[in-house]
Amino acid sequence: AVLLVSLICGLVGTLVVGNRMAFFSDAMSHCAFAGVGLGVLITFLLGGTRQQGEFQWLIPLVMVSFGSLVGVSIEFVREKTGLASDTVIGVFFAGAIGFGAMLLTALGKRSSFNPEMFMFGSPLFVQPSDLIYLTVLLTLTALLLMWRYNQFVLGSFNASLARSRNATLRFNNYCFILLLALIVNFSIVAVGVLLINAMLIVPAATASNLARDLRRLFLYTVL
User: Fold this and answer.
1) Which of 50, 190, 206, 213 could make a disulfide contact with 1, Cβ separation 3.0–4.6 Å?
2) 1 to each of 18, 19, 37, 139, 187, how far by Cα in Å?
3) How far apart are CA 8 and CA 82, in angstroms?
């Protein structure tokens, strides 16, 4: 699980740093708390109890869906309002954290779900199904980068130049945001909310001090 998460984060770390999305990825990881709380609430509404586990699969599904929705919403609001990215991200960050804390506090006595599992993470928490999800996610990430990596890099380097080369910046932005949301939400079980952002940022930041070109930067980040 740790090896899969390392490879996935290494593949996109260069783009996260290049697009100045460190705060965005951190916000996405903390928004997972709201997704977890919403998932717990939905299981109770469907008739689940503390002892029953038939709806436990629904919590990760709601968490990933909520995270993807928040990511797309941040980009949409930023486009429509013209506000600075850090301002929009900060608003969604605060709202999601408050919403998640409220839900988890209210439902804590009725649920055996432990939110600290997502805060700190551990390979011991990883289930066989999580390995399947991470393997599929690694494959999806590699295929998407093979298809769009040059456009992603060009858009992060010079948006005007990318438009002159007929790059579909809006489509690329939403694709990358959705991919990043999936990566963050599926990886936090193994490494936790507190560490997933470090997995995305630190290798690329370190490699940027060693590499002389983008090709080497990408390879050094993965390594």
Assistant:
1) 190
2) 26, 27, 24, 14, 9
3) 31
Angstrom distance (rounded) from CA 44 to CA 40:
7
E strand or H helix that includes residue 126: none
CA 42 centroid distance within chain: 22
141-161 residue pLDDT tens = 999 999 988 888 888 877 788
Contact 36, 113 (CB under 8 A): yes
Determine the distance from the C-alpha atom of residue 130 to the mean position of all C-alpha atoms in its chain, rounded to a whole number: 15
Which residues make Cβ contacts (< 8 Å) with residue 101, sequence separation at least 6?
Answer: 33, 37
Q: Which helix (H) or strand (E) holds 127?
A: none
Look at residue 111 and give its three-state secondary structure.
coil
Q: pTM (2 decimals)?
A: 0.85
82 φψ region: left (φ > 0), alpha (ψ -120 to 50), beta (else): left
What's the rounded Cα separation, in Å, for the pair 174 and 14? 17
Residue pointed to by tokens 């993807």: 68
pLDDT in tens, 35-79: 888 887 888 787 765 444 556 677 778 888 998 899 899 989 988
Over residues 92-129, the pLDDT tens digits come to: 888 888 888 888 777 766 666 666 666 677 888 888 98
